[in-house]
Amino acid sequence: MNLTNEWTTEAEKVLLNKRIVKVEYMTAKESDGYMWNNRPITFLLDDGTRVIAQMDDEGNDGGVLWYGTQDDEGVLPVLRGED
């Protein structure tokens, strides 16, 4: 099996046919616990899995989520500090 197929299979196990039940930005306290400057968007799936947008695969900081449709696109940005 090649690397793309391996990781696609893993991503499908984690995400496919799951429902997002909660969306929120990471709190400043939690972000500080990761030693991050950024507070990324996170979401919770119906099986209890939490997904966190990271800057890279090493978890060096929080990251953004890009989204797009045929009619619209945008970025859910990282936040910094408290609200």
Given helix and strand content, the structural type is alpha+beta
Provide mean pLDDT, rounded: 95
Largest sheet, strands/sense/barrel: 3 strands, antiparallel
The count of domains is 1
Span of the ends, CA to CA? 46 Å
Structural key phrases:
83 residues, alpha+beta, 3-stranded antiparallel β-sheet, two-stranded antiparallel ribbon, 2 helices
Task: Explain what you see.
The chain has 83 residues and is an alpha+beta fold. The protein has one domain (19-80). 23% of the residues lie in helices and 31% in strands. The protein contains two helices and seven strands.
What order do the helices and strands come in, and which of them pair?
Elements: H1 3-15, E1 20-25, H2 28-33, E2 38-39, E3 41-45, E4 50-52, E5 65-68, E6 73-76, E7 79-80
Antiparallel strand pairs: 1-3, 2-7, 3-4, 5-6
Structure summarized in a few sentences:
The protein is an alpha+beta fold and 83 residues long.
